[in-house]
Structure formats: C-alpha cells, structure tokens
Amino acid sequence: MKILLIHNKYGKFSGEEAVAEAQLKVLEENGHQVITYFRSSEEIETMNYGKAKAFFLALKNNQVINDVTKILETEKPDIVHIHNLYPLISPAILPVIKKRNIPIVMTIHNYRLLCPNGLFFTNDSICEKCTGALKEINCITNNCEGSMFKSVGYALRNFWARTNKQYINNVDSFMCLTQFQKNKLVKNGFDANKCDVIPNFYTKDIEDEDVDFSTKSYVAFAGRISPEKGIPVLLDAARKLPNIPFQIAGLMRAGYEKFLNVPPNVTFRGMLNSDEMEVFYKKAKFYVHTSKCYEGFAMVFPEAMSKKLPIIAPNFSFFPEAVKEEITGLLYKQGDSNDLANKIESLFYNKEKIINLGRNGFERVSNKYDKVSYYNMVLNVYNKVINPQK
What we know:
Elements: E1 2-9, H1 15-29, E2 33-40, H2 50-57, H3 62-75, E3 79-82, H4 93-98, E4 104-108, E5 121-122, E6 125-126, H5 137-141, H6 148-163, H7 166-170, E7 173-176, H8 179-187, E8 195-197, E9 218-222, H9 231-239, E10 246-249, E11 266-270, H10 274-282, E12 284-288, H11 300-306, E13 311-314, H12 319-322, E14 329-332, H13 337-348, H14 351-367, H15 371-386
Helix pairs in contact: 9-13, 11-14
C-alpha cells in the first residue's frame, strides 16, 4: 500500500511529532511505501511578515495545494493520512485530495476540530463554549490565546473550516485517540461511523525486565510544567506528605515558576533526554498525572506502563480509559489535592500493590498499546475506507 503522510510540525518537538514519526516507521516496517509532505511552523520565522501570512495560509495555501497536487499526480497514493494542518498546510487541501477519489484519514490529536485552541481549556479551566450557539466568537471574547491577534486568527480559521464543512465532507475516518474524544466529535455533529478509536502506542520495543525495587524512592511526574497540567494540585498533595519525595521532569513554561509554591520534598529535574528518562522511570515507585484539561492521549501513560509503574490519574476525561481503577492504578477526584495525597500515601508504602498494579499495566501496554496492535487497527481503518463496500 502507498500512503501519503501529511503533517504540519510545531515550532518545538511535540507528542504529535513523535506519533507521526513512529507511525511512519511502523508502516515502513510492515512493507508499505510512505511518502511524506511535512511542513514546520518554524518556517514562519523566516518569512517576511510571517505571522500575518500564517493567518491567510491557514485558510488557503496555494503553494501547498500545488505541492500536494504534484505528489498525487506522480505518486498516486492509495490513501492520505493527515495529522496536523495548521498553520501552513490548511484544510483547503482536503477537497483537492477528495476530488481524486483518494480516501483521507485523519489522526485527531486534540480537540482542534471543535475548539480553536484545541484544548477545551482557557483561563485556567475547562471550556466548551465554542461548541455552543455562538461557537468560535467565544475564542475572541475570551481571548483564549492571550493575544487578540492569535485569538481572532484561530477563531476565523476554525469558522471557515467548519462552515465550509472541510472536515465532515472530505475526511473518511477520524482516528480518535480515545472513546471520550470520539464522543465529543459525535455529540457535535460528526458521523459516529466515521470515528474510529485508535490510541497512541508505545513506540519502542517492549522488554519484560526485572524490577529492582530497592532503587525506587520517589513519586514521578513528567510533562510540560504549565497551568493545564495541574501542577499546583500535585504540589499541594506533596506538601501534605513531607516524608515522600517527588520528582518532576519536563520543560517549565516561561515565567510559570513564580506562580508555584514548591515544598522542599519536590525536585524539578528539567528536560531529560531519552536515556535520562529511562532512569527517571526506573527509580520511581509510580507515576502521577494531574492534568486539568481533557488531553488527547498522553504518551507518558504507555511509557510509564512499559516500566511497570502504576499510575494515579484524575477521574475525568479519558483517564479512566487508560488507568483501570485498582488494576493498573488509582483514580482520584480531579482537582482535589486531599484525595490525591491520600491515594499517593496509600500506595507509596505498599510494595506488593505497586508491583501488582505495575505488572498489570505492563501487560496492558504489551497487549493494547503496542506497535502490533496499533498497526492492525490502522490497517483495518485503511482497508475500510479504501474498500467501503466490503
């Protein structure tokens, strides 16, 4: 099968880039020919009036349309797989592809098809106003991007794509990362039969290594250090447990540290490379996730499970799909630092439970979030949209 993979990379390496690259590798490993059309938001910095141009290019980019048309003519792919289209590629390429009767599938990494900022999160809280009566105007009135220029731009590009039905009319399968995400799309007018649930997968080979429990000494968190990740809730829980050490790995959002009251039992490790992350996980007793936003499917979940770490996560959004209560981890009341502290304390000193939950999580990532399972699910969707009559 010949697949055209299209993706607009972000300015900084992100989870979406990791998934797109891992998917490319998996497809090639299974004998498929993959052609890529990648652009990067870093290009904006090299353009004259780049940010202003990016606004118009997000609506329609004639150069991209020409590029993709040439690829379609010369390569004749069996299917096109879309990841991110903003800001340089634009949904305007979708009808161009569709006119050639080439099926289109799209991995839905976030909530961008319904929410201009893609998060359903603004002003430090969950927000779904853009699915209501006034829709995208809320992005402007709330200034969701913290910049009126960006908020207007994000709102208008979503408005244009929605009113022209660029996604609904042209995409054959929306590959949602979670059932929660699929439910949001269906509730807002997307065809349930065109929404398939395919979670992210652990990108490395899964190895069943022995756990050296004697080296495990702390509670781990990994991810962006920013408001939507609920770091204050984690710090509040840590403050209630002064004898339990916590380690946090990830990039701090610029200036955010001044809003954090960090207790002495919490250590910020900063950004760690892949080798350092291996050690980070191995020396942790378990992983805690405190996000305040819905998220897509956090890559850290299969990563932690692959290291036999139980996971403590909030009891909303997709998290109960990934963390099975008392099987692979524990769920706490979202935003409740007291409940989180109780769950952490109950697990931290229970070696047998940590080992059992960790083993269950490892089996789950080995059988559900592995490369083979992912490939089979993707191939099933490809075959379904290429041969819809079967």
